[in-house]
Amino acid sequence: MLLMVAAIWMMAACGGEPPSLPSQRVATPVPDRYAGYTSPPSDKVQGKLVFADKQFPDAVNPLFAGSTVDFEVGAAPDCSRMATQVEPLPSLVYDPSIQASPYDAGTARKLLKQAGWLPDIQGVLSKDGQPFVIRLVTTVGNPLRIAAAERIQRDLLGVGIEVKVAYYAPGDFFSVYTKGGILATGAYDLAMFGYANGPDPDDEYDVFHSSQIPSANQPGGGNYGRVADAVIDEVLMEGRYTVGWDARVKLYDRFLERLAEEVYVIPLYVGVNAMTVSSRIQNVRPNANAVANNWNIADWWVTR
């Protein structure tokens, strides 16, 4: 299996107006979330060995403690920025029954040992002569992601998994399959990145349906983790053609449950998109996607 860590932009979960600043006001913050997990390209020899065991996702899941990352990286002592699923609040299909696994290095070591991964003299795990070394990729120049990557690196090393981090310019990182994009071609073991979700959960189709796996014939596909799951395919397809809202919610509940069961995604934490504007500018409405915060600029006006 292959682990992917991704950031997704959603509408703000906070209520009310944030505190005002002198001559300025901070528009409603928009959170992001980190997630990800699935199977590797077939030509990655190390990926075949490291990720072939079903115990691997179950073992690493307790190491990606969202609350711990939230506290140390997100500077949220109350863990209020922790994410538990790919549809966090205020998503209309948020499932409160899905909760993050607590950090548990002991369980991780036990499951890895059962899978045949044993520590050497230096404490690094190996199996059949292959050391457990995996590659984490993310975008360059993002302090938050750098801090998160370092935390992940430290936590995994604690159980004997060595993580090597590589940083790429966004143009190379997000490029399509036919242009050698890092995500699209699956040139990684772990990846951390951001993408935007709209208010309707049908957006998950583009990220998790098997028809969206990037390839030469589908170079722009967004299923970077290469999730190919019949249950997920079925409920996502039914979700986009079902009209009744209650019926749709049940379908997306099953989708979220399946992601959690198979550990296809491991949510980490929620970030904040704080948009600061002059108090003279009226009718500013932040967008779910931080790069589109000026989406309604035609409706702004300036007071004297």
In short:
The protein is built from 9 helices and 12 strands. With 304 residues, the protein is an alpha/beta fold. β4 (118-119) and β5 (125-127) form a beta hairpin.
Task: Give an account of the 3D structure.
There is one protein chain. The chain is an alpha/beta fold and 304 residues long. It has a single domain, classed as Dipeptide-binding Protein, domain 3, CATH 3.10.105.10. It is built from nine helices and twelve strands. The strands form three sheets. Strands 1, 2, 3, 7, 8, 9 and 10 form a seven-stranded mixed beta sheet that branches. Helix 8 runs antiparallel to helix 9. The longest helix has 18 residues.
Secondary structure layout:
Layout: E1 5-9, E2 20-21, E3 24-35, H1 45-51, H2 55-60, H3 66-72, H4 105-114, E4 118-119, E5 125-127, E6 130-131, E7 133-139, H5 143-157, E8 162-168, H6 170-173, E9 190-196, H7 204-208, H8 230-241, H9 245-262, E10 270-278, E11 281-282, E12 301-302
Parallel strand pairs: 1-9, 7-8, 7-9
Antiparallel strand pairs: 1-3, 2-3, 3-10, 4-5, 5-6, 11-12
Supply the key terms.
single chain; 304 residues; alpha/beta; Dipeptide-binding Protein, domain 3; seven-stranded mixed β-sheet; three-stranded antiparallel β-sheet; 20% strand; disordered N terminus
